[in-house]
DUF506 family protein
Amino acid sequence: MTSPCPSSRAKRATASLDAAARARLAVVPGSADSSGSEHKAAAAALSSLVNEYLLEADGATVPSAAVLAAGGSDVEDDEHDSRGDSGSAAAVEEVEEITRVLDAAGSGDDLRRRIFADVVDAMRELENVRAERSAFRRAVMSLLRERVHDAGLCKARWDKTSGMAAGSYEYIDVVIAAAESMRYIVDIGFAGEFEVARPTEDYEAVRSALPEVLVARPDDVRKIVTAASSAARRSLKRRCLSVPLWRKRKFMLAKWLGPYRRTVNAVPTSAGTAVAGGGASAVYRTVHGFQAPPQIMTSTGLSG
């Protein structure tokens, strides 16, 4: 068995104290409402130790104590490592968990399959503008709307807090029932968000189970991200590398489940300054028929 890095032993010595302190300082989150074509999901008002967890419960727009607890913590990861569990055994469990969640999400869900098929078709149609990542994502969203999906571009953004770096991320969502906050999260580059330095073979096995194109409900996203983040953390520790703030579980969860703004505009408000014939303006012309896209061969990386 691989010997633990010196720093991990010191962390385990204070794990119980840290857990107790967090439990005493936990508070119940509040919420706020907003309206308009672009809206910001309400951020939770948590204590300095808890507000770094940015999540969105399935069917809710703010974190709840139950969801935070379900997401786990870095302290729990330290305790898991201290038991000396086999990295390979843990990786097998994580692969099984990810596969189980994805299979269960797609079982009997005709709408999810339809959304997935439309996303893949849109990506193939827009392959010629894929290099413009943000514009490409917006163009895919626009095509989904043309295919009668209530799709939007979600821009998650969060500030720096104790133990968590500031960050931002963009993804697509498809709203099913706005009044009940039912939606699917759509990410067209999901697996790529889990790359780490010097990955172990066990972690590569876990990452290979992640889909490049993800269409899933928020709670399923939480389960998948939690499993993959635990595997990433273990891989880095096996290499005696520190876990960067932008690879910690709470940071990764915030990308898809944190506070966000949603827009359905086909072109960003800043597109008027784009150079004629390029950038978002070119993508807009492609999506709306002013410029016919070239014939694109089927990509081998988009199989469902």
The two ends are 37 Å apart (CA to CA). Residues 12-72, 79-84, 272-304 have pLDDT under 50 and may be disordered. The CA atoms of residues 13 and 78 lie 10 Å apart. The chain has eleven helices and six strands.
